[in-house]
Design goal:
With 177 residues, this protein is mainly beta. The chain contains one helix and 14 strands.
Length: 177
């Protein structure tokens, strides 16, 4: 995990107001996944639980390519979008589509859920989604080899939108048959 580049923040206001303020300091994310032939579960664990009552919640995202060869660092494109499971500590998980930096919209409707627990300084989050594929849904089924990317926001540092720690490139992801 590394901080998102300040030069790539979507607005001049963010670039100027956050100049010199570190962000994206979560350096390590532990992950695991499992499926039962119908549902994919992704476990995330990282150090960085914000105190309650801040303006921005802690958050995590898991991104998969829908089609094409999207650049993760650019958050996909119109021709190669990303399907994202976006979890926030105060709202649970939502499905989103990203077609570039600052261009995310509500994603496709599919069966998703989340369970989260703050344990001392660590978050333990499980995100689930139905296996399968469809319009604007990243394919996920047994035997598939694809890619995955991650992002984390530490709310106590006012991290939101493009201010985050992220995996700069895709990691291989395979669902055992």
């Amino acid at each position: 995990m590394m901080p998102s580049p300040m030069a790539m923040q979507p607005t001049a206001y963010i670039r100027k107001s956050r100049e010199g303020i570190p962000h994206g300091q979560v350096a390590e994310l532990k992950t695991a996944s499992v499926h039962d032939g119908e549902t994919l579960a992704i476990y995330l664990s990282w150090k960085g639980v914000s105190p309650e009552g801040g303006d921005f919640p802690d958050a995590a995202a898991v991104a998969f390519p829908i089609k094409g060869q999207p650049a993760l660092i650019l958050m996909g494109s119109k021709d190669a979008p990303l399907h994202i499971l976006h979890w926030k500590a105060n709202k649970g998980v939502k499905s989103k589509i990203a077609e570039g930096i600052g261009l995310s919209d509500p994603g496709p409707i599919l069966k998703i859920s989340s369970e989260a627990k703050a344990d001392g300084d660590y978050w333990h989050v499980v995100l689930t989604r139905a296996l399968g594929e469809g319009t604007n849904i990243a394919p996920a089924y047994p035997g598939l080899e694809t890619k995955v990317g991650f992002a984390l926001w530490y709310g106590a540092n006012d991290e939101r939108a493009g201010l985050k720690a992220f995996s700069i490139d895709w990691a291989p992801f395979a669902l055992d048959a």
